[in-house]
Design goal:
Order of helices and strands: EHHHHEHEHEHEEH
Shape: globular
Radius of gyration: 17 Å
Strand content: 5-15%
Structural class: alpha/beta
Strand order of the largest sheet: 3-2-1-4-5-6
Oligomer: single chain
Number of helices: 8
Length: 210
């Protein structure tokens, strides 16, 4: 059995959360509606469902309608994910691939966002398996997305790279050694096995080099 590294997307491969946040806030401004929260940190690491429960609390009908309209708004206001790509990502993925690691992507984001990111950033060639939050029954912190990924990658020896509290909890609950990428804002990452400052540190971790 080989070794696998499973990456989260937002906050790990791309610093996308500020882009998402600004687009959501602009949408609500255009609609003339006050969102349930305008605090950036309330949305970090959430699934699409969790995000909308915060944006529009206590009104499921209104939430559903706004979410449908927002799907069209996103198409008209695309994010260029290449601008959010972390500097070291391409080199890190190349090094891991050359070293024989199997790579996976397990993100709570919608499939359309994942596919667009992989295309914009030209990263598709590196990943043997990708899964979105739309393709699981339970969102992070439930371990389902990592359990499915590990099975699909056919590697019992896995390492996960996360950033959010929920993502870290999901990977740990799946029994996977978890690396947390430190963020520029407050984030509880204490449950991770190790915290790194830059993705470049991954290839030197004893867990991968032994």
């Amino acid at each position: 059995m080989g070794k696998a590294v499973i990456f989260d997307m937002d906050g790990v491969l791309i610093d996308s959360e500020p882009f998402y946040f600004e687009r959501r806030m602009e949408y609500f401004k255009v609609k003339g509606i006050q969102p349930g929260s305008n605090k950036f940190e309330d949305y970090v690491g959430n699934s699409e469902e969790q995000t909308w429960e915060i944006l529009v609390p206590n009104d499921e009908i209104k939430r559903h309608q706004l979410q449908l309209e927002y799907s069209h708004y996103k198409k008209q206001n695309r994010i260029d994910f290449s601008k959010a790509l972390r500097d070291s990502v391409s080199n890190v993925l190349e090094e891991l691939t050359e070293a024989g690691f199997v790579l996976g992507l397990a993100s709570s984001s919608p499939r359309s966002e994942i596919n667009q990111m992989l295309s914009d950033c030209k990263l598709s060639i590196y990943f043997s398996y990708t899964i979105s939050g739309e393709e699981v029954k339970k969102s992070k912190p439930d371990p389902e997305i990592y359990l499915i990924s590990r099975k699909a990658l056919r590697c019992d020896d896995c390492l996960a790279v996360e950033d959010s509290t929920l993502g870290i909890a999901a990977a740990k609950a799946a029994g996977i050694y978890t690396v947390a990428l430190k963020q520029n804002f407050m984030m509880d990452q204490n449950a991770a096995d190790i915290i790194i400052e830059d993705l470049k540190e991954i290839s030197t971790l004893p867990r991968l080099t032994r």
